[in-house]
Amino acid sequence: MGRFRKLINTVIGLLLLAALWEGLVLSGKWDKSLLPSPFRVLEAMNGLLADGTLFTHLKVSLLRFAAGYLTAVISGIVLGLVFGWFKRLWGIFDPIVQVLRPISPIAWFPFIVLWFGIGDLPAIVIIFIAAFYPVLLSTVSSVSKVDQTYLKVAKNFGIRQPHVFTKIIFPAAFPYIATGLHIALGSAWVFLVAGEMVGAQSGLGYLIIDARNNLRSDLVLAGIIFIGISGLLLDKAIRVYEKWIGKNWGIVPNERGA
Amino acid sequence: MKLLRKLMAAAVVLAVIFSITACQNPSKNAGGPGAVAKQTVKIAYLPLTHALPLYIENELGKEKFKNINIELVKFGSWPELMDALNTGKVDGASVLIELAMKAKEQGIDLKAVALGHRDGNVVVVSQDINKPADLKGKTFAIPHRLSTHNILLYQMLKDAGLGYSDLKVVELPPPEMPAALAEGRISGYIVAEPFGAKSVANGKGKVLFKSEDIWKNSVCCALVLRNEFIKSKGEAAQELVKEYMNSGKYIDSNGEKVHEISIKYMKVEQNVLDLSMKWISYKDLKIHEADYNELAKYLIEMGLSKNPPLFSNFVDNSLIN
Amino acid sequence: MYIEVADVSKVYNESTGKKAAALDGVNISIEKGEFICLIGPSGCGKTTLLNLISGFEKPSSGRITIDGDEVREPSIKYVTIFQNYGLLPWRNVQGNVELGLESLGFDKKRVKEIAREYISLVGLSDFHRHHPYQLSGGMQQRVAIARALAVDPEIIFMDEPFGALDALTRMKMQEEISNIWKKKKKTIIFVTHDIDESVFLADRIVIMTPYPGRIKSIINVPLARKRDRTSPDFLRIRDDVFTEFEMKEKDRLEYYL
To answer: Which of A20, A40, A155, B67 could form a cystine bridge with A36, CB 3.0-4.6 A?
Structure first.
């Protein structure tokens, strides 16, 4: 579908949504201060953009997110490669991971505060937890997907560890790992708001919580929209990255049908 | 291959940089050249009118403080605030006294040193409710089982000859209460300000009772400090509480300025805030033994606490003098 | 003898608990510089034999030696070219050919040079920056060959390397490998199921039969290269192979009027 077409469709979709929303507000069923009209929200969004509040908070949130996400990616990939290769080791750790994984990071709050304090670190830790498991698990499974022929070739040429990891296993596994990175990105971004509940004094999530406590539903919605847009942009960024992988690896992960 | 290695190196470097910069808590320690090193005292709070003395103290104290700097840490809800207080990540908090009592019961060494306010809680009901009996069979919201609000509810029902079981009592986060009332999902609620005023301001609710109508000297929020802070930094604690009490006195006689300051910390709409301030008072923020014991009695009677801490163990009025 | 396979058997444990003999009592001696084809139907053990000699598997009984040393594991001196080429998709042609060289301790410049040499040997100089997925099957196989040759191995094992190519490309590749063999004088052990291919390439054709896998007979191909696929000599040997596989009736001179 042509890019122009796509853009038009998106705009139409958004306009329809806004119209529906305005309709709901006009129907008077809900109190104006509890469900604000799209215009009030737009006003609020403008306000946040104009006085620079948005950028300050967005920057802080992005920094925290980057720290948590990148740490999770690096540790997840390294551990994933090790566990994927040394199957015995994975046999021991897999059950532990399976027990810890379904626990929402929010449940860990009291311990996170105890071990990491309040402010920036808990937010980073929570994002780390949310991103870590998808990366770890997709890396572990990616190792088993490595074409055995590559390993034979490595053996034939006398390539030894750790070169087998760096030259063969990691590059071969990377497209699958990239899928895990993509999933982890989405899953971790969702927890941004939760992460900033523990004593953060800045950030997009903090903005929303504070607006909520101040009963400013227009600000809450404005914050929500900004978080949504940021998440979308991050997703687009990682798709560009995946395309680049496709060019260099000869396969594009996540393509429809691939 | 080279490209891959470069990428990995870049990612590691980025991660390290971000971790470092994100971890740095920007210290707002004022003090120009030649300033004495002031101690930073961290106090946690929720943006309620019940913590007003803290806001005032923070604003006025900037010039008055000799030994300390206050750092107010805002939280979004009680559980996270209590986590911080219990683990010592903050030195004290303006908090529901019952929550602090529970923590004390469980072994956390806390001391209540002053009240946050007097009164300031209202029972808000939907327009079709005119007396407590009308609430029979309806749903009623409180913020927390362990709160003065719950006690006030209990008292109100008792006075009207009703029991807890005559209503459906639910716990809701305070910001959600005005919406729930407007939608008819609850018929009434009782909570800290400014969430009560909100419903009155938008016409969806009215005040049935003020807290002083039900319980004359209700004890709700208190300034609670960690005992280790009091013990190890006695002078700082003294100064903190002294200025806190001064702020309480200041509020009564400086309406205009107080309004200005409160807007900074509670970004609620003006009309809501005005309403809120009408039914709260900050006179005499000392915790009296009789009032405290009445509170403890209620907790036992309602089965909320088997063994509330004794006044002598939990309340420390020595810092007020 | 350069390569000695002495009374080798390979037995696998099947999932049912029974044992299946992939190879049973195989004996063969191969001289240095020979071009040997292993040919036979599925299950005859030709790939297994190749794996055993190249060191990817160990025999259940018997012994395999190369130049007097027992074969225990794969070595860079005896390179295998696989049917699916085994090219690393994230490296371009240059990077792939350099792979083996990286383990030999040359400095970076030398590695690049040697790789370039062999890439041009297989005629792919114009493509050295391409990635495998951008190349045709035949070209990919040539990259694999260049990669193998670059480390200057003593033996090259090839496991149905042209199986995935179309017939015309296959014949072209056969010519190329034949030329390379002539030039470089490597020992080549080549697994195939294509009779014409074996007659075209080999000095000796090893005919194998299945259940259990063993060598039925070995046919000499004393033809000079470059071989003509249509010449009577070629066809005669081809006939012999067909006969071995019992796919040709014994010669009966009959005239039809």
So the answer is: A40
Report the CATH number of the A36-249 domain. 1.10.3720.10
Give the minimum alpha-carbon distance from A89 to chain C in angstroms, rounded to a whole number.
25
Between residues B39 and B81, the one the model is more confident about = B81
Cα–Cα distance, C37 to C55 (Å, whole number):
18
Tell me if residue A199 falls in helix, strand or coil: coil
Segments making up each domain of chain B, as ranges: 39-119+220-320, 121-214
What is the rounded distance in angstroms from the CA atom of residue A83 to the CA atom of residue A132? 14
B-chain residue closest to C92, CA distance: B1
- C56 contacts A155? CB cut-off 8 A: yes
Instruction: Report the CATH fold assignment for B121-214.
Output: D-Maltodextrin-Binding Protein; domain 2 (3.40.190)
According to DSSP, the β-strands at C214-220 and C204-209 are antiparallel
* Structural fold of domain B39-119+220-320: D-Maltodextrin-Binding Protein; domain 2 (3.40.190)
Closest partner CB to C76 (pick from A158, A174, A249): A158
Residues of B in contact with C95 (CB under 8 A): 1
Tokens of B210: 């003020």
Substitution target from A146, A148, A149, A156 for chain C, most C beta carbons within 10 A: A156
Å from A253 to nearest chain C CA? 14
Tokens for B301?
């009677």
Task: Report, as an integer, the average pLDDT of C233-248.
Answer: 87
Task: Answer whether residue A258 shows pLDDT above 70.
Answer: no
B/C interface, count of CB pairs below 8 Å: 4
| Neighbour count for residue A236 (Cβ, 10 Å) | 10
**Interchain proximity A113–B47, CB inside 8 Å:** no
Higher pLDDT, A119 or A76: A76
Predicted pLDDT at B8:
62
For the ranges A44-48, B169-173, C246-250, the lowest mean pLDDT is seen at C246-250
pLDDT at res. B218? 87
By Cβ distance, the residue of A67, A73, A109 closest to B18 is A67
- State how far residue B1 is from chain C, nearest Cα, in angstroms: 7
Instruction: Return the residue matching tokens 């992939």.
Output: C22
**For C91, nearest residue in chain B (alpha carbons):** B1
Q: What CATH number is given for C1-77+155-162+189-257 in this structure?
A: 3.40.50.300
Chain C partners of B4 at a C-beta cutoff of 8 Å?
A: 90
Query: Cα separations (Å) of B203 from B18, B182, B206?
Result: 48, 9, 7
Backbone phi, psi, residue A89, to 5°? -60, -45
Q: With an 8 Å Cβ cutoff, are C91 and B4 in contact?
A: no
As a whole number, mean pLDDT of residues A128-146 equals: 93
Q: Do A199 and B198 touch (CB under 8 A)?
A: no
Mean pLDDT of chain C: 89
All structural domains of chain A with their residue ranges: 1-30, 36-249
